[in-house]
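Hi support team,

I've been running sequence recovery on a batch of backbones for a student project. Most finish fine, but this one hangs at about 90% for roughly twenty minutes before it completes. I'm not sure whether the input is malformed or the queue is just slow. I've pasted the structure tokens below so you can try to reproduce it. Let me know if you need the job ID as well.

Thanks,
M.K.
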């Protein structure tokens, strides 16, 4: 179980407590614990399983929540969440997955309109009942309406997209697990994950190995600890669904095809269509197995080989959206991507003076460790709905910032 899933379940408890008018201090405790788990650099489940790690040493996690997390890791269920789910209509959790809806709005719909499911919410929207509640402008109503449509089409609001950094945890865990089984020459994650999109619908993993090793790789993949369903399984491909709801697809290819497979499964679809047009114009055929002239494969070992055969420079995955990158690659004019090392500063940062977790001094220290030249502190004022600073507190913070700015880092 990855940190992202543990954090999501802890957040569910906080949301359900808020919907049922639970103790606000308990709500805040679960939210703080969820943030701590989500931000922790190491897999919490592995630390707990080792038996020697004390969860209460982490900020925001007390003895009660530590026991809950331990039970979750050991049994797969969070006791407090199970108790709460039994006391509220099951459809309310689905409503919480819809963009624009939090526990306060879900509680409002439930109390005022008897909305207990996505279907109920859709009906209330169509009859104009939500708009009559007040506080719901056209843009927010449209956002909720889009969320309801997406949830209805998917069959469940929970089966949506996840943010990139959460997908990173699952991708890393599965890759390390497959590597540990041996017999793999190369392995990488393709799809929108490799293109570094903000949200990920599923994961696409590509493996190259000797044909004799493919069956064992496929079998091991289906036995990954978080797999709850093996949707399909063949000689060279398999699709599973994890306990979080995330779908993961595995393709196993021979080593000579690895580059072509990575290019094909990385996408995007629009980018690949344009590449196939270029191949056809050169009387070639491009697919996940390579670039072919007739029946002969002329390239496919690496992505660079594939692009070179098509008369193009290699295109970084982040650019593969068919937005002019192919023409630039043909003319050797592709721009250089900004690297992490080139980032000079951060202009949107919150401290614990409002809704952040670190002190101003800690933020400055972290920025200096990253080699930043400047940062801007943008804490909230009392006009925002979340915690904010009074005018007097802001003026005091300005003086503190002025003092810190004299230490070499420009603090705005």
């Amino acid at each position: 179980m990855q940190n992202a899933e543990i954090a999501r379940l802890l957040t569910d408890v906080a949301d359900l407590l808020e919907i049922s008018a639970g103790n606000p201090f308990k709500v805040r405790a679960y939210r703080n614990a969820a943030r701590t788990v989500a931000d922790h650099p190491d897999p919490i489940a592995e630390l707990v399983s080792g038996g020697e790690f004390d969860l209460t040493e982490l900020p925001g996690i007390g003895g009660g929540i530590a026991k809950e997390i331990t039970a979750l890791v050991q049994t797969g269920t969070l006791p407090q969440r199970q108790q709460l789910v039994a006391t509220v209509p099951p459809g309310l959790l689905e409503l919480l997955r819809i963009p624009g809806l939090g526990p306060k709005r879900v509680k409002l719909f439930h109390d005022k309109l008897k909305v207990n499911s996505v279907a109920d919410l859709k009906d209330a929207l169509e009859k104009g009942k939500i708009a009559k509640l007040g506080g719901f402008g056209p843009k927010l109503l449209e956002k909720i309406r889009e969320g309801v449509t997406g949830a209805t089409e998917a069959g469940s609001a929970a089966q949506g997209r996840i943010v990139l950094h959460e997908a990173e945890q699952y991708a890393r865990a599965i890759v390390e697990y497959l590597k540990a089984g041996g017999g793999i020459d190369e392995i990488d994650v393709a799809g929108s994950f490799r293109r570094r999109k903000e949200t990920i619908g599923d994961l696409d993993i590509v493996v190259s190995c000797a044909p004799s090793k493919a069956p064992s790789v496929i079998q091991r993949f289906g036995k990954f600890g978080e797999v709850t369903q093996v949707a399909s399984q063949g000689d060279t491909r398999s699709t599973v669904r994890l306990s979080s709801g995330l779908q993961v697809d595995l393709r196993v290819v021979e080593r000579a095809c690895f580059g072509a497979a990575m290019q094909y499964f990385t996408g995007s679809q629009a980018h690949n269509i344009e590449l196939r047009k270029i191949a056809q114009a050169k009387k070639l055929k491009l697919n996940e197995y390579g670039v072919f002239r007739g029946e002969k494969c002329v390239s496919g070992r690496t992505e660079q080989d594939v692009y070179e055969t098509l008369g193009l420079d290699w295109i970084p995955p982040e650019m593969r959206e068919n937005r002019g990158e192919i023409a630039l690659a043909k003319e050797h004019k592709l721009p250089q991507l900004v690297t992490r090392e080139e980032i000079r500063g951060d202009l949107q940062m919150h401290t614990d003076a409002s809704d952040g977790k670190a002190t101003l001094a800690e933020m400055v220290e972290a920025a200096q460790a990253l080699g930043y030249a400047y940062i801007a502190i943008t804490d909230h004022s009392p006009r925002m709905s979340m915690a904010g600073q009074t005018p007097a507190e802001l003026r005091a913070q300005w003086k503190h910032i002025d003092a810190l700015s004299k230490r070499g880092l420009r603090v705005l």
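--
Follow-up from support: It reproduced on our side and the slowdown came from queue contention, not your input. The two ends are 40 Å apart (CA to CA). No action needed from you.
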